Fold this sequence. Notes:
Chain A is an alpha+beta fold. Chain A has helices at about 1-20, 110-120, 125-135, 145-155, 205-210, 240-250, 310-325, 340-360, 365-370, 375-385, 400-410; strands at about 50-55, 60-70, 80-85, 95-100, 105, 165, 170-175, 190, 200, 220-225, 230-235, 265-275, 280-290, 295, 300, 330, 390, 395-400. Chain B: Belongs to the enhancer of polycomb family.
Amino acid sequence: xxxxxxxxxxxxxAAPASNGGGAPPSSGGGENLPRRGRSASMSSLPLEVGTRxxxxxxxxxxxxxxxxxxxxxxxxxxNDYEYYVHYTEFNRRLDEWVKLEQLDLDTVETDVDEKVxxxxxxxxxxxxxxxxxxxxxxxxxxxxxxxxxxxxxxEFTKVKNIAKIELxxxxxxxxxxxxxxxxxxxxxxxxxxxxxxxxxxxxxQLQRHMRKCDLKHPPGDEIYRSGTLSxxxxxGKKNKVYGQNLCYxxxxxxDHKTLYYDVDLFLxxxxxxxxxxxxxxxxxxxxxxxxxxxxxxxxxxxLPPYQRKGYGKFLIxxxxxxxxxxxxxxxxxxxxxxxxxxxxxxxxxxxxLDILKKHKGNISIKELSDMTAIKPDDILSTLQTLxxxxxxxGQHVICADPKxxxxxxxxxxxxxxxxxxxxxxxxxxxxxx
Amino acid sequence: xxxxxxRPRPLDIHKKLPIVKSVKDxxxxxxxxxxxxxxxxxxxxxxAENDNETHQTPSKKKLQEIPTPxxxxxxxxERDYSRTFAQTANYVRGRGARAEIxxxxxxxxxxxxxxxxxxxxxxxxxxxxEKFETILFKLEVLDHKARERSGVITPTxxxxxxxxxxLDAAAEALQSLSIRFTVLQSIYNYWKSKRERWQKPILRxxxxxxxxxDTNPYNVFRPREKTHRLHTRRMQRRENSVQxxxxxxxxxxxLEQAKRVVEALIKRxxxxxxxxxxxxxxxxxxxxxxxxxxxxxxxxxxxxxxxxSKLASSDDDYMGSDDTANGTRQVGPTSVHPRYADSNFFxxxxxxxxGELKRRPVSNGWLLKRDPDDPMLFTRPLDxxxxxxxxxxxxxCAPSINGSIAPTFHGRIxxxxxxxxxxxxxxxxxxxxxxxxxxxxxxxxSPPNG
Lengths: 433, 450
């Protein structure tokens, strides 16, 4: 591939330039520097995309990272860059822009990496690697929507466009890219109105908006209230802008959410903590009005400031309560995120094991499903993961040793906030007209 | 963790599963055979492993804590948001969307607007941001209405969306805001240039969604034609396209073809049955005639009468009536030839016919006296000279087993006047010359090629 040669040439060209810059001059001459393995660290600034290096994280400890992107620091020198890095141990939600001083340049593995890649390209190139190379060499200036520009877009989602948001009381670091309208993509921080979820680029704009905003709670119907906790049902068709705002916001925290289709066909269940300032959104889940695949939940999110407080479990439980009222069995749309799967497994474990603890006599999976509105597949996978279904004497049995059950229940964690079904005032969605 | 070596059969979700409450239950109800003990030990081990697992979990759980990005609190929050909310006694009911209510100024100034306003005002208090916001919002709404009126609202975003609102119309509509014309003019120009740069409405809810077939992942909230979605996957595979139309047409053609084949088949089978019925009728009639003929012949031999011409005529009569009664005719006592209807001879003899047939050749020497080459009634023997004169060749004779040349066929003139060569005795179905019992045979319905 000719493209690889280009990269090398760039490296070579960059080396002398860095000598001229702020970096301390190394002992060797300019010509033989770049090809000397790890000692090239100081001379190869700025770091190339794809470089592996150790980076000081927020725990003040070094962690391995991979450089995803770099950008010039405004008003900096020619080699003053900051780097967008991916911590290889963690989910990509922790990817972030870091300053050069956070990187341990003694650990740079650019040459090693390149050699490996060279070998790979010459010997056997997997599709992924090929794509990676293609991606990094997408030509610019393609206006029509061909495969190249698609890759460009894919490439673009690798870097978060909005770094922070302000939402009500909290300033929150975002997790993922979200396809905000192009007018907003250049702003590092967006200001959301806590109630109507309109977003603005400046604090003054938000403050002006707050003076006129007439909402103190999500725009739909309140269908549940218990203490300070309220649930609102918002119809995406009736409140399109709100639904879209919510989706833009949620995408910042959900990797596998798509905003491809309109919000018309969804209902949004927004959970709020209420006080004398209004109903503050804690999290939400969305649900298709008519699901062909018996999904009772499309997307679920607890906003970061409210995470690990049991709200997620409440939302999951709530989605099943709605399914029970509909008289349907439901399941969440896939894929589940790591955090989502953890919450769901916990919920299923708790619900099923509570029944098994109390139940006398035999019980079928179907009966469990009817009691809980959990899809039989999910019940099976949960019980099998916990090794509670055994095959003995030619038949399956459920092993419900109370001690074992208690251990599993403990591991599944607290139940979170209980859904008080008597406080749910709701009728299933019906198409009007 | 080891797995059972046998593969359990898949679990039936409708089947009631016993719940085993403790490890002891396994032991109590089990007879101590080798297999069950291994199972028990498996279960014990499983329980033990579980113990280990739970002992590990506290430390594991800390490691498993999935790190997430951080957040902080906003200091100005208490000032930005007023404490003016009180929960109602009843659950809150949603109102219509803001766009429907219409009073709310949906537009918020963006950076560009603020910068322009600052420059425009230039320290003078000509225009408040709120008023600016209001005017921009109204311009957008008015323009949208203008486009609506001229019918150029595009359902999806394709080409740039032009500005249709003119300054005069805007000024007229915004009179109530009591704004100076020069200011409005500046705002209008600014708004128009912004709109031309954006190529779309600046008010988000007025922006059309991207087209359905757009693949740009940056574009969001495409319309989805849910109403046309079919309910089952099988139906979804048959989308409303030219391709599936052609496919369905092909299916229709095949089905019609199949229908024609089946109809032809039915017709053929009906014909077969009809033919069968005729044959059966004919056989019955022939049996009857044979019987009559024997009676008549018996009488003839007794009385010494000459009857062949008479018999021939009655045969013709009979054939004629048979033709017209075609198929519907049931052979039974009613269809007995009228001439013998009152004859108790016939009635008496039917029951005894079989025995008589067998007995007759031996007891009554009459048949043996007959010419074996001319066994059939109602037929006439062929005249070899006449055949030769008409140019009809007799089929060649095959040499028989014992070397002598015996005729392997009998020629005759059938009842219909056709010339027939019988290779088989029509009644006994044995080749000519090999019949074990040379006997009077009746002509079968002539085969089509006879």
